[in-house]
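DATA SHEET
Item: assembly model
Revision: 1
Owner: S.N.
Input lines:
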Amino acid sequence: MTITSHDIDGDGVRREPDAPLFDFNRLDDSRPLIKKAACVLGWGNSAITTIATTLGIQHWLYGLRDPRGALAGIALAAILFAGQIYTLRKSRSGYAVFLTPDALMTAWQWCNWILIPLAVKLAGSPDFGSRRWVIAVGSAAIIGGVGGIVSARLPEKLAFGRDV
Amino acid sequence: MCKMFDVNSPWFYVVTFVGFCVAFWLFISWHQRMPAPAVRQGSGGGKQSRPDTSEHKPAPGAGKHEESSTPPARATAITARPILERKNTAVAAISGAGKTFTMNAVAVHDRTRVERAAPGGPAIPVQTVFLSTHFTYYHPEDQQIDLRPLRDHIEAYFILDAIDRVLTVCGKLIDERMELYRSGRDVGHIIALYIGEHGQLKDRLGESYVQRIADIGDRGRKTRIFIGYIELHSALVAETGGSGAFREKFQTRLVADSVDDRTWKVFTGDQPRVKTPRGFWMSDEGMVAVVEPTSAMITRIAAQHPPTWPRLIDLAAPVSRGETMAKPFHRGETHVSPIATLQNTPDDVFQNVDFTTLARLIKAGLVGETKGLEAACEVHAGKGERYQLARTKLKEALESLDRAEE
């Protein structure tokens, strides 16, 4: 098998993709415990939102939630996790392919669970489809989207360094 | 209890989330215990831009390998070992095994630590001195540990005469410091010499060079003048006799599996002959790993106040007028412009970038405008202020070249 080097830092220098997985030294080495905790919470959050999404899809398709939906979620979460780690510092587009569903599912579940109910509540429980409702839900969706991307990206950023 | 396994219960999510967090925590903990050789796996040390996927071929005379080249489960990092503990360090391997990469990694790590003669004692600063005819602060293919931000923090001598003079100065300093040592006084800061291309230096500088190295090896450690690192080839080790005297001079000895049996034995003692994966060296205490210094680490060093002691070459005997052997290394010699450090302000952030050279390279078609700017100025293409500023300066350089041609 031929392994080729890649311009992984985007600086015109081709480097090997096989950098150590958890090289905390690559970043500021202060407070590694907090970084580790943030990694764990980020990945745990990704996993749980993926499972919740597959269960939601199962309910939408078949009208029930059962362990098969959860197992599918676990499998999908594992694939996305492995894909992100494998493509990290190898391929920006490949990494984006595995990161995007993760970020979208995180955003969707955060909106479902917390942000939209909270925003609607704060807006005074406006009527469905009203202007205030649209603003409240839109704001929640934007916040959820940004939060989803950040929370999906943050663990790798902490664990692996600044670059994809 | 059943609710935890009922996917319709919120408890299911809580328990699953906690379970995943524990699993990820264990995974990270396990992985952190693994050695992290930041000599990128498969890279050939000196030629780090492309992984070496070929099998390790032992040098003629090398014994049979007992194990595969799988990295060991645990290996201490040689780069984490203080100079005062490591003392004189010799490395033997054939070319391309990563000797120079390891030297640069060790040198950078040596600048990040606080050296103390005793626990709780005063910090002892380190003067970093490179002596190598092949020295370069940076090369996109051969030397990717970017030392350019450390120009004010390290001394680099690459001309034979300068190297010779510096070694002479070291001998004199040892003489002076020995007086202090004998009177029980502090002998001063650490001077760490990182010597590359020993074979060439030996051939070109002759017996006096060998004697100076031997002298530093013998008396230097009492006076805190260390051979922080010296690159040897296996044959040269055999030439030196490979005796106990060698071990006496070099307290830390690292070797790759490409050397001959005799060298292996001299360096490692009774360690069984095994393959040394890229990024690892065998020592008499077992396998050790090399951890690549991060760019953040280099930037942090660069942001500190540079050392104030005189350069070793300035302590040498005056040279005749017009002699330029000992001139300091300057940026033009790498043909790659240095990057900015934290000390730069926005106005002078690219003061060290040679835009004229970059413009010539672009006009010659050797590099694209965007890639050239990104590499030389450490910027990413986009609408960022730094990139736009660099682009403006490049355009000015291109225009002035055009005008000159007209």
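QC remark: The interface with chain A takes residues 5, 7-8, 12-13, 16-18, 20-21, 24-25, 28, 31-32, 34, 36-38, 40-43, 48-51, 53, 140, 144, 291, 294, 296-297, 371-372, 374-375, 378, 380 of chain B (CB under 8 Å).
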